[in-house]
Each structure stands twice: as C-alpha cells, then as structure tokens.
C-alpha cells in the first residue's frame, strides 16, 4: 500500500474516526484504534471485530505509555481524538485544552520518537471564528471564538512546528460541518442530527435566529476520502487544507430539505438567536482540490437520505 501497512486512528470509535477505520480496513491496512470511549461507541466498530489486522486499545491520548504502545510499528497516525463540543469547551476550557492540546502534543512527540512517517490531524473550521460573507481560505485570519477553536488552532500549530523542527510529515485538515450516519445525537450535537430526530418525532425543527446563517455541510465519507488523500499526497506535507463540500447551505434551506425528504407536515419554528452563533461558515476548497485532488462526491440530498435512513434504524437511542 504505497509503503504503508499499519496505521493508528486515535478517536477511532467516534463518529468520523469509525468511518475512517472501516475504509482503512477495507483497503487492507492493519488498523489500531486508540479511544477512551468518552464519546466514542463500541457499536461504531461492530463491523471491525474479528477482521484481520484490527486492534482496539482503550486508553487516553494523554497517557504517554499507552500512546507509545499503540504507536510502535505504525506508519501513519490519524489523530481524531478530541473533546469536540463547543459548549463543553466553554464550561470546561482547562479540560478541553488538556485533551485537545496536551493529547495532540503527546501523540506528536511519540510519533517523532518512534519514527512515524505521517501524521494527519483533524482540524476544524472553528479556527476561523466569525465569517464575513465569503468562503474561508486557509490563509485567512484565524480568530477562534471558543476555547474549542483555540485548542484546535494550537493543535494545528504544533503539527506545523513538528514538521519544521523535527521533520515529521504532518498534514492538517480543517473539517467544516461533518454529517452522516453514527453522528452523535444529544444536547450538544450538530444541527442535522437534531433536526432529523425532531422530525422523526413529528416535531418541527427549531431554528435559532432568522435561519439565514450558512454552513458548509460535508458528508462523512468525503471527509474520509480527504484523509486518504492526505496520507499519500507528497505536496500536502506541512500544509493545511479546508475539507468541506464547497457549497453553502442556509439553515432555512436545510430545514426545508429535511422536511421534504422526510415527508413530515410541519413548518420550522423560530427562536431567539444563540449567543456566539457564527453567521457565515463556508469553505473554499480550491487548495484541497488542487494539491490533494479532493473532490466531494456526495450531494447534500444523497448524504441526508443516508443519514435519515441510519437514524430511522437507530431511532430512539440517544447517542450522547
Ligand atoms: N463532527 C464535525 O463536524 C467536526 C468538525 C470539525 C472537526 N472535527 C474533529 O474531528 C474529530 C472527530 O470528531 P467526531 O465528530 O467524530 O467526534 P466524536 O466525539 O464522535 O469523536 C471523538 C473521539 O475521540 C475520543 N476521545 C475523546 N477524548 C479522548 C482521549 N482523551 N483519549 C482517547 N480518545 C478520546 C472519543 O471517545 C471519540 O471516540 C475531532 O478531532 C473533532 O475536533 C469534527
């Protein structure tokens, strides 16, 4: 497999990580997962148990010994383990710093010590902060508005510095709003899983503000593809890439589309705007297109249909 055979996915029991694990196993890699199951779930990995080359280790990315054990013999590390909730980061910024920054630094350092070839980091569009009505480019000003955003920015900077100082081949992917099957549904989850679950209960989606705020919703399998490309691309090393669909969707449009796809006879309900809600968050993905050859393949309609089908099957089980 172009020189790589064994990979580590931290946070591999989570929403995005588990899809990446499925793909990596499917392509014949040996895959080690390190996860503390703070938000990850065993059932996300149900297709992996018993497969050749799959190893699951329950542990914390901040624990040097366990990280050393799982990184040994690995060619590529995909680092997705993190506390991902913005509200949690507001309530407990010290913990989020500890896991997202301290954990990332710990894994990076072990990768250098052990001689890992490549490190692919799950960054976030949260590093950009408030938008100004134009798609975000990687070299825009970075001005996070939450402790979570700061933690992701620190992780990025460590990646770049580890390339410059130690020569570790790091690649940063800044994910926008990722959605798809296995997405957590709970008080802190993303808008798509909340809207779908309300509609499954026959209740209208609740829109905060006027609904004209826009997001870039990217399907989880497209994000997995970006990780794959980042693993192999020569020119990606030391760089940062937006990973989005390249399309802007307003919350009004999203609600309308979900109502149509789910065939529920309701209209959205409007509520007060949420403090700190970003108005505009869309990705310019031209750099990822050019350098990685990244091309999102799943339309919002298709991705939502797959997500709705998954939630229907798993309906009633709150996942967070
Ligand atoms: N979902 C999105 O829209 C989105 C957007 C931007 C960036 N990201 C990033 O993508 C990555 C994956 O996010 P996700 O949406 O799949 O969330 P998730 O919560 O499903 O996955 C995170 C995983 O990390 C694990 N984890 C947390 N703390 C850990 C620790 N200390 N040690 C070991 N494992 C730990 C969790 O148990 C979980 O399995 C995160 O780094 C997140 O910041 C996600």
Overall residue-averaged pLDDT value: 95
Give the neighbour order of strands across the main sheet: 3-2-1-4-5-6-11
For this structure, what is the CATH class of the largest domain?
Answer: Alpha Beta
Number of domains: 2
Approximately how much beta-strand content do the residues carry?
15-25%
> Which homologous superfamily in CATH is the superfamily of the largest domain?
NAD(P)-binding Rossmann-like Domain
What CATH architecture of the largest domain would you give?
3-Layer(aba) Sandwich
Number of strands: 14
Coarse structural class? alpha/beta
Number of helices: 10
Shape: globular
List all distinct small molecules, including ions and cofactors, that are bound in this structure. nicotinamide-adenine-dinucleotide
Helical fraction equals 25-40%
Backbone CA Rg = 19 Å
What is the CATH topology assignment of the largest domain?
Rossmann fold
């Amino acid at each position: 497999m172009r020189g790589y055979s064994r990979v580590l996915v931290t946070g591999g029991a989570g929403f995005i990580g588990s899809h990446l694990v499925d793909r990596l196993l499917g392509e014949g890699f040996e895959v080690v997962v390190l996860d503390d199951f703070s938000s990850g779930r065993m059932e996300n990995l149900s297709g992996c148990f018993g497969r050749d080359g799959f190893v699951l280790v329950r542990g914390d990315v901040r624990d040097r010994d366990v990280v050393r054990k799982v990184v040994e013999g690995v060619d590529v590390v995909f680092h997705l383990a993190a506390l991902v909730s913005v509200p949690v980061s507001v309530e407990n910024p010290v913990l989020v710093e500890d896991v997202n920054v301290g954990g990332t630094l710990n894994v990076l350092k072990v990768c250098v010590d052990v001689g890992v070839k490549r490190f692919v980091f799950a960054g976030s569009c949260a590093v950009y902060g408030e938008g100004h009505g134009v798609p975000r480019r990687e070299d825009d000003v970075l001005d996070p508005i939450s402790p979570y955003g700061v933690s992701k920015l620190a992780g990025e900077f460590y990646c770049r510095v580890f390339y410059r100082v130690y020569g570790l081949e790091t690649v940063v992917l800044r994910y926008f709003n990722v959605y798809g099957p296995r997405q957590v549904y709970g008080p802190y989850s993303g808008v798509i899983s909340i809207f779908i679950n309300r509609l499954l209960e026959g209740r209208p989606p609740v829109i905060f503000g006027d609904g004209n705020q826009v997001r870039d919703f990217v399907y989880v399998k497209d994000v997995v593809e970006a990780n794959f490309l980042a693993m192999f691309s020569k020119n990606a090393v030391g760089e940062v890439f937006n990973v989005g669909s390249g399309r802007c969707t307003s919350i009004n449009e999203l609600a309308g589309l979900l109502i149509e796809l789910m065939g529920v006879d309701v209209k959205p309900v409007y509520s007060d705007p949420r403090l700190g809600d970003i108005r505009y968050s869309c990705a310019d993905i031209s750099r990822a297109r050019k350098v990685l050859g990244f091309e999102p393949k799943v339309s919002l309609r298709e991705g939502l249909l797959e997500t709705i089908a998954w939630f229907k099957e798993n309906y009633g089980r709150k996942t967070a």
